[in-house]
């Protein structure tokens, strides 16, 4: 055994190989540390707890009383704050902010009569034509794909 150890230590090629192995081991451990440090920590998506809103509660999220802007389509409440230029107080769809926009969207109308009064039951939309239902379903799909669903509209 002593002879083998003496041959390993006395051979210059073994010294060179030993230095190369040590260098590679150090470089590999250093690269792993740097790679781990440069990778940003995974960000967990925001957890949304769905809430039930009465028409009066929903009306608080109109961009005036609150900075948040919510609107309802087919019973689902969406946070449309990122689209404030459309749904905010001065936006083209501003009268739908904080309200159930279903009837107005189905009928392609922005008239005030298209939104149900706050003290009335939720509009069941039973009188919509087939074409209006299709239009409303297209809008519902749009909101579902673009905005965060935050709750449901319920009667008081």
Molecular structure report:
With 156 residues, this protein is an alpha+beta fold. The model has no long low-confidence stretch (mean pLDDT 86). The protein has helices at residues 2-10, 12-38, 55-59, 84-87, 102-106, 130-146; strands at 51-53, 70-73, 76-79, 148-153. 43% of the residues lie in helices and 11% in strands. The protein starts with a helix and ends with a strand.
Distance between the termini: 90 Å
Fraction of residues in β-strands: 5-15%
Number of H/I helices: 6
Rg calc: 32 Å
Query: How does the overall form come out from the CA principal axes?
Result: rod-shaped
Q: How do the strands line up in the largest sheet?
A: 1-4-3-2
H/E order of the elements?
HHEHEEHHHE
Regions with little confidence, pLDDT below 50 for 5+ residues: none
The major β-sheet equals: 4 strands, mixed
């Amino acid at each position: 055994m002593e002879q083998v150890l003496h041959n390993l230590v006395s051979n210059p090629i073994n010294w060179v190989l030993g230095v190369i192995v040590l260098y590679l081991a150090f470089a590999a451990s250093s690269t792993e540390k740097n790679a781990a440090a440069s990778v940003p920590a995974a960000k967990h998506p925001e957890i949304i707890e769905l809430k039930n809103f009465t028409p009066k509660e929903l009306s608080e999220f109109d961009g005036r009383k609150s900075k948040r802007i919510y609107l309802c389509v087919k019973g689902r409440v969406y946070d449309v704050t990122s689209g404030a230029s459309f749904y905010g107080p001065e936006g083209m769809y501003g009268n739908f902010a904080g309200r159930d926009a279903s009837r107005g969207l189905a009928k392609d109308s922005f008239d005030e009569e298209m939104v149900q009064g706050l003290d009335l039951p939720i509009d069941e939309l039973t009188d919509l034509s087939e074409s209006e239902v299709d239009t409303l379903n297209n809008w519902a799909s749009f909101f579902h794909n673009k905005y965060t669903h935050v709750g449901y509209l319920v009667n008081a």
